[in-house]
Amino acid sequence: MDHSNHVRLTEAELTPDLLADATIYGPDDEDIGSVSHVHGSGSTAQVIIDVGGFLGIGAKPVAVPVSQLDFMRDEDGEVHAVTSWTKDQLKDMPEHLD
């Protein structure tokens, strides 16, 4: 996926409602997970990503700072994010417990 034409979200747009269910892409545009939920908003938010699993079953939730993700909107208005983390690196993080 070519992200060069996608519009980056502003800090004001980094809200739980807008980021919920966003797909997270890692290196080489690998689909590495999706946003389960968000704690806070703006540049200090913590994004909870469900990593692995199939259709949400067996996924491991991990918390990452929103600053480690580049959220954007594609041509169809869909919100997604890219990161330099791999799926394995996220799976190695501690599980997020609510």
UniProtKB/TrEMBL annotation:
Give start and end of each PRC-barrel domain: 21-75
Q: What is the lineage of its organism?
A: Bacteria, Pseudomonadati, Pseudomonadota, Alphaproteobacteria, Hyphomicrobiales
Looking up Pfam families in the UniProt record yields: PRC
Record-given protein name: PRC-barrel domain-containing protein
Q: From what superkingdom does this record's organism come?
A: Bacteria
Q: Which organism is it from?
A: Aminobacter ciceronei
Stored InterPro entries: PRC-brl_dom, PRC_barrel-like_sf
